[in-house]
Amino acid sequence: MSEDQKRVLEQQLWNIANTLRGKMNADEFRDYILGFIFYKYLSEKMEIFANNILKQDKIKFREINPKMPKANEYLEVIKEEALEKLGYFLKPEELFTEVAKRGSSTSSETTTTVPEPVEGTNFILEDLQKILINIQLSTMDTASEEDFDNLFEDMDLNSTKLGKTPEARNVIIAKVLAHLDKIDFKLESTELDVLGDAYEYLIGQFASGAGSESLKINKRTSYRNALSPLGLALTDGTICSCRLRAIQLSNSGEV
Fold first, then answer.
1. In contact, 238 and 146? CB cutoff 8 Å
2. Cα(73)–Cα(128) distance, rounded to whole angstroms?
3. Closest by alpha carbon to 16, among 179, 130, 139?
C-alpha cells in the first residue's frame, strides 16, 4: 500500500471513529469496522472479477439489472464462475458502493457519488443485513462454505449502541459506509493487505485496556503470515480475515 493510500485509509478510519465515538468500546468498534472493510473488499473483488467476464460483451457488472435482456443468464454464468474462483457471490445491487449510495440518498435523489447521510435518507439496514447473510449463503455446498461460516456474526446492526431507534442506527451505519466508500483499494493494480493495515492502525489507536499489550506486540507480526493457518483463504490464494484476526489477537499474545 502506498503512503497516499495509507493516509486515506487512516483518515477515513479516524472519521468513522468520530462517528462511533462514545457509542461502544474499542473491541466492538474493531468488529464493526473490520467487518465493513471486509464487505467492501469482497465487493470490489467481485466487481473486478465480473467485469473481466463481461468485457467481451462490453457491459459492466453494475449495469446488469432486471430490465436488461439476458440479465439472469449473465448473472448465472458469473455466479458459477465466482463460486469456483472466488468462493462467494454478490449481485450488482449488493455491492458495497451501491448500498452506500442508497444509504446516503433520499428516495427522490439519484446520484453517482456518496453524499453525507442525514436524517430522512433511505433505510438500508434490512438490505445490508440480508446482504451479509447472502454472502454466507452463496457459499453453501462449496469448498469455501466453512471459511465464510458466521463471518459477520459480530456485526449486530440492530444494536442500540448504534442508536436508540432504527432510523438513528440507519444514519450512523450510512455514515460509516460513506466514509469507507472514499477508500479505493485499487485491487486491479496492486497487491494490498488492506485488512492488515486497517487492523494494525485500529489496534494502535484504539486498543482496549484488556489485552492491549498483546495487541501491540502482535502489531509487529506479519498479518499475512499470522493468518496463514487460521485466516479466510479465498480460492484464488488471497488471505483475508477480520473475525478470526480479532479473536486471535484478543484472546492470546501468541500467533
1. no
2. 25
3. 179
Q: Rounded to 10 degrees, what is the CA torsion of 13, 19, 23, 28?
A: -20
Would you identify the CATH topology of the domain 3-251? Ferritin (1.20.1260)
In the predicted structure, residue 24 carries a pLDDT above the cut 90: no
Question: Rounded CA gap, 198 and 30, in Å?
Answer: 9
Q: How crowded is residue 34: how many other Cβ atoms within 10 Å of its Cβ? A: 21
CA pair distance 180, 12, nearest whole angstrom: 6
Task: Kindly list the domain boundaries of the chain, sorted by start residue.
Answer: 3-251
Q: pLDDT at position 216, please?
A: 38
Cβ neighbour number for residue 174 with a 10 Å cutoff? 29
pTM: 0.77
Instruction: Output b/e per residue, 131-160; b: 16+ Cβ within 10 A.
Output: bbeebbebbeebebeebbeebbebbebeee
User: What is the sign of the dihedral through the CA atoms of 88, 92, 97 and 101?
Assistant: negative
